[in-house]
Amino acid sequence: MEHDDDPSRPATRWADAWRGVLFANAKVLRIAERDLVEREGFPVAWLDVLAQLYDAPGNALRMQELEERSLFTRSGLTRLVDRIEAAGLVRREPVPGDRRGVSVALTPEGRRRHDRAFVEHMRVIEREFGGRLTPAEQQAVADALAGFWHGDLESPTTAG
Amino acid sequence: MEHDDDPSRPATRWADAWRGVLFANAKVLRIAERDLVEREGFPVAWLDVLAQLYDAPGNALRMQELEERSLFTRSGLTRLVDRIEAAGLVRREPVPGDRRGVSVALTPEGRRRHDRAFVEHMRVIEREFGGRLTPAEQQAVADALAGFWHGDLESPTTAG
DNA sequence: TGTCAATAGATGCAATGTCAGTAATTGCGG
DNA sequence: CCGCAATTACTGACATTGCATCTATTGACA
Asked: Whole-number mean pLDDT of chain B?
């Protein structure tokens, strides 16, 4: 992936864009991970789960819903929730209509920890990520990549 | 809902930009990981190592250099190299001047596997990532995030 | 009602990653 | 030359993750 600055052949810019995503993610997340563990004693994966529950109606989600929304550890969710539950931040509850299902709910303690951790986490992200971009760049990246989250991107994988 | 172009309050766009980075990375990488394992029988972490060696002068790097450049698995490099070496894709060699050191070199087989894997990997990235962005968006993201890789971003972490 | 595929989670095992501690080597200061 | 801190890489204990499998429950249907 060397020389393709040629204006007649702009299609290779995605490689640099991808590299940027890769590096930004890795570097910022590494710092944020360290910081969170030091301050709060739990990793970003926990905060991800807590935040999903926080945003959910009733502060609770079924395992499967959690799995769909969670960025990290698509699998292994059972044990992840085990640990968070052991720490008292969430609680498993039976689902009224379906005896197979389990609902994971935020405990009051979990909510407190979430609030504190989230604020500090965002501060770190702002310092390490947002602060390195101009407002225009922030807007551009947000617009360009919006499709990856508020969008469904199943499509092109059908053919296996 | 979309109007935050307000100059008095532009600072919140980085949150959406960050979310985009997070999601794009996670979703695209997950697909690429599966694909690579299926096709080549090794994970992206291997390709990362192979690519670092490929780009290095003499197709070789010391463990520490490898660790600094590697995006994935900052730690655990010893065992990672163990595995790749066991597969015959790299070879450990003593360093002439320093008997503590170890140089990790790409084998001919490693080079072949790298070439093939890299091409296919890039194809997947293009399909899953590049293909979802317009050329203008690709350019914008590449420009905005360039600082995270060709740049040094040590600075603001000094105070711990 | 009995059978069976589908769904929701959990579990076993192997692979991988993390962290602290170890061993060998180097280079400095006396 | 000798002791000692720094550097380089590895090892072992342990936590986490991924994958395939397993159990329980549900819902469709004959």
From this structure: 86
pTM listed for this prediction: 0.85
Integer Cα distance of A131 and B132 in angstroms: 26
Task: Find the helix packing angle between B44-55 and B13-40, rounded to 10°.
Answer: 90
B79-116 pLDDT, tens digit each: 999 999 999 999 999 999 999 999 999 999 999 999 99
Cα–Cα distance between A88 and A109 in angstroms, integer? 7
Give the closest-approach CA distance of A72 to chain B in angstroms. Answer: 8
Residue with tokens 């250099």: B65
CATH architecture, range B43-134: Orthogonal Bundle (1.10)
**Second-level CATH architecture of A18-128:** Orthogonal Bundle (1.10)
Chain C: nucleotides below 7 Å from protein CB are 7-11, 16-19, 24-27
Q: Is B130 on the interface with A (CB under 8 A)?
A: yes
Chain B CB contacts of A122 under 8 Å are 15
Tens-digit pLDDT profile for residues B59-89: 999 999 999 888 877 778 999 999 999 999 9
Query: pLDDT digit string (tens) for A96-115?
Result: 999 999 999 999 999 999 99
